[in-house]
Amino acid sequence: MKTTEKNLETVVNEINNVYVEKGLNGVYAFLKRNGINYTVEIKKFGSSTYQNNIEKMQWISESNLRFDYESEKKVSDVTGKRYHILRGIEIIIK
Length: 94
Known about the structure:
Layout: H1 2-33, E1 38-47, H2 50-61, E2 66-75, E3 82-93
Antiparallel strand pairs: 1-3, 2-3
């Protein structure tokens, strides 16, 4: 059982290294190339405000497999103004 935990720790470290060098697309390529089963969960933090950005950064720091994800662009139905929804992404290894 410890071997599996150690292998998982090694994979997580490799994923973080690939993310730093190549970003999320590099991480997806690494997972596919190594045949690692995973799922992706996207968390939305609301509109781009200082408080929501702090909340997102705290969420990211709680796990080694949570990353900053591209903001989602929206247009208000009422005012027609554009705004951004902050998002984070978590990779869950099965």
